[in-house]
């Protein structure tokens, strides 16, 4: 240790007092500067992440009407192509609503996802213009493929915007509920509604169709249970989410009623309802899921905005503190330099006062 300190001690002995002070102040300031840079880096990362997530949740909200529109058009197309002529006016309205939803997203980059949107728009126009000669099963499959493409785009947006990597527990479980449970739940419910509507129109069901209906009902129940789990965990970390619980309870109740209705009308082959009536009743859980989605998305956006605002304020405070620290260091250095000059000057004047005339020291002999 002595060998390590000897060169430093020798250097300090050769320096003037003001230089020594400046050097020591700089050395002591290095850890503070390092910690400040780490803090600023962390705050900037928090700010950028929150801003990206905000953009992501807004993009998903804009994409949601398109997803619901294609799902609704699929079910009504299946009923109409199966022979329910009363579904035609509802089908035209669903097509118009989907057109408006598509117009709202055309031209938006969505984190560089231009090509998927172009593909979705092209496939939608093909589906919309299909004629009555298209087999119901083919139409249903084409709609489902398009829905899958829209949901894949939603997942890509969530990944690119860092929503799926949210670092805070309440918002993590909230985005998880939105992207991985609520949105797939609307699709499973939409498929169940569409398949059963075609069956209700024909008043006939095959064993294969019963298997499909039973599978979709089980999937809807599974997604509903996972959705409940995610929201309850989010509620554990943020009690303010309590306002979503009544909507969740209502959704669970409605899903149970639609499942019972489907068992009675389709699986038991009662066929007492028209396809239009069944479609309307089976739409209820989808509407309630949408209400839950809107509430969760709005709350999540608020959390992200608050996080971004707090990070920006902390960055400003850190920069102000850094400026104050640098100013103090500069002021102390200037003060020490001035003190050193004053000390040298006063010493010189004191020495001069001890000399006699002619610049010689007085003779005290």
Structure description:
With about 375 residues, the chain is mainly alpha-helical. The protein has 9 helices and no strands. The longest helix has about 80 residues, at about 275-355. The two termini are about 55 Å apart.
Number of helices: 9
The fraction of residues in strands falls at under 5%
Indicate the structural class: mainly alpha
Largest sheet: none
Question: Which percent bin holds the helix content?
Answer: over 70%
Average the pLDDT over all residues and give the rounded result: 86
E-strand count: 0
The N- to C-terminal Cα distance equals 53 Å
What's the order of the H and E elements?
HHHHHHHHH
Shape summary: elongated
Helix and strand arrangement:
Elements: H1 2-14, H2 17-81, H3 88-105, H4 114-128, H5 136-160, H6 169-202, H7 207-237, H8 245-267, H9 275-353
Looking at this protein, list some descriptive labels:
0% strand, 83% helix, mainly alpha, 365 residues
Write a short abstract of this structure:
This protein has 365 residues and is an all-alpha fold.
